[in-house]
Amino acid sequence: MDSPSNRTLHLLTLLQTGGEWSVDALAERLDASTRTVRRDAQRLRDLGYDVRSRPGPGAAYRLVPGTKIPPLLLSADEVATIITSLLVLETWTPGDPSASVARTKLEQTLSPALRRRAAATAISTQILQESPAPVDWSLVGTLSDAVARGARVRFEYTDQHGARSTRVVEPYRHFLRNRHWYVVGFDIDRDDWRLFRLDRMLSTSILPGIHAPREFPFPSIEAWLTSDFGRIDPS
């Protein structure tokens, strides 16, 4: 089960897609009780987000458009962690300014003491050039939105043998492994879980419609990979 902070962040992501969400629908998407959803909604209000509710049997929540994001509340250790992570991305993707721009914007929102910690972390950290393959961050964003919304994506895919095909997939998670970015998803036409390399995907788009999240039938992605995609019994 997700930690309270991760679950609350997931709730915020769902509400930011717009519209009104029923408490029952949010509970299903978050794999939590309706009471937990209400508690997490209040936690967002406490953080400064304008979350409106409609009471009654069909209780629902919505995030007011244009809500001003409250200031970041970070500890010094959390700042060091974020800065280090951004430095890794800066080093590994020298042609993409996204990470350096994000670091600059983050530093501008910090208090003087935390800004000093951020600067100290940047000065003292050296990232080696053992970079993974380049990644299209707009594609990562599209996949992230699809996962959060429970949507399907369509894309053109070229496999390792050069064969091209059109795929419709319910993305589950994307990850970095052996210097390549992958996405695991349920392939609708093949009725099975499949693995796709992001650098082999083209013309990716989110299809209209929302679907109930499909349960990944393995303990973890790592277990699925090491069992030859479920074909070998790990026991």
Q: Your description of this structure?
A:
- The protein contains eight helices and eight strands; from the N terminus they run H-E-H-H-E-E-H-H-H-H-E-E-E-E-E-H.
- The chain has helices at 4-16, 23-30, 34-46, 76-92, 98-109, 112-124, 137-149, 221-226; strands at 21-22, 51-54, 60-63, 153-158, 164-177, 180-187, 192-197, 201-206.
- The model has no long low-confidence stretch (mean pLDDT 85).
Please give a handful of descriptors for the protein shown.
five-stranded antiparallel β-sheet, single chain, 21% strand, 235 residues, alpha+beta, 8 helices
Please give a quick description of this structure:
The protein is α+β, with helices and mostly antiparallel strands.
